[in-house]
Specification:
CATH superfamily of the largest domain: Response regulator
CATH topology of the largest domain: Rossmann fold
Strand content: 15-25%
CATH class of the largest domain: Alpha Beta
Radius of gyration: 22 Å
Largest sheet: 7 strands, mixed
Low-confidence stretches: 3-102, 104-113, 462-467
Number of strands: 19
Number of domains: 2
Strand order of the largest sheet: 11-10-12-13-14-18-19
Length: 467
Amino acid sequence: MTLLDEDQQSVGSNEEQVAPDVETRRRDSHDGNHSTAFVTQDSDLSSSENSSSAKDSLTTEAMLALMSESEKVAIAAAKTEPMVIPSDKSLAGKHSILKMGLDETIAALGSDTEKTRTVAFLVPLTGDGSQWGRAMLNAAQLALFEYFDPDTTLLIKDTSGTPSGAARAAGEAIDEGARLLIGPLFSESVLAAAPVARQHGVPIISFSNDRSVAGDGVYVFGFTPHQQVRRIVSYAAASGLRHMAALVPYDDYGYAIARAFNEGLDAAGLPPGHIEYFELKATNATDVVRRIAALYKQSGSATGERLDCVLIAAGGRTLRSLATRFPYFDIETSGVRLLGTELWQHESILGEPSLKGGWFAAPPPGTWASFEEIYRANFNSIPPRGAVLAYDAVSLAGVLANKGMIGSFNSEESDWFTSMEGFIGIQGLFRFNKTGVAERELAIYQVSEDSIDVIDSPKLSVMGGGM
């Protein structure tokens, strides 16, 4: 983890910071029920054919299941007692530091909580989202051994995947001396934990990608769909594409995508785009693509200028289900560019002819390959992309603790996070803006027959003026 000082600034273009969008909690379109969702990750989850431990891998469908209350799975089993992991610099840099397993590692390192600084890590280790919580805890441990000094303790708290569990975990952590909270995972859990933390002047670095929960000591660290959509729309417009449409899920994530989509078009001087909504898992894919096909044909006959690109805000099987229907309705993707978000960033989309030539915005590769190698060596599984959030957040906490910047944060000191020039994490540069949202420099990728390649790298720049 590198902190950027003023003498490390470099000149680069910054994307415009825009107005807040809607919360990104999933909505079931049939009954109106809400459930929280770590919405930017559904297509990068490890598939069973790519993992040496299929039962522990996170599939695309597993992530989609997390997005709907009726499909969430409660995974049993972690210790319910608080886990305390003191740091030990003698283990730093070793690829085999955790081969003994989590419980044995904790026992080997001891449980000394008499440290001068304590950082708490709040994730679901049981209940909803526990697969994600376990993967993120794995990544957190890797960062712990590299960045924490012997006087800093990482206190692990299980949120049980519920708002009440998150509030309880936050209170317990603060009572046990935590002066910084990392987590929780879901936006509703963040909302529940925030009042507890604010009461004691303790900041939260949350894994949510919901910008509406940021502010007043809460920092949103997730990959926001808003930034991804603005980046890909801006790039498409700069490449000469003028007539755009979007396929988005019928939920709050989709509404956030739709708003960012039209904001991006407006910023590029283009008219609002046509938006179609699809059901969870694209059960209405045929009808949705049929309407896009009608728009495609109408746009050509009425104006002489056909629809030239379509944003599909989906990943995994849902993405393939939608994209494969384009040629069936005589929409040639050789003439209509398909655009996407970070949900596309998974090798499972390779080999799908309709997606060949598609562009999407996502964090740059950075040192992901090295991180993945070390993670696999220690945990015998492929990390989901979201695991880097845990690694970077814990790394950041370690660096700040080592600099003596972890303590009680009152209102006069609360802007120290946002006053920093930025940080370089696993997947590139980020910094917190004045609203408490992590701004990130994103790359543009292109899908080919057998690879996914960066075609427009982010410019390393200080993002103080917004993205």
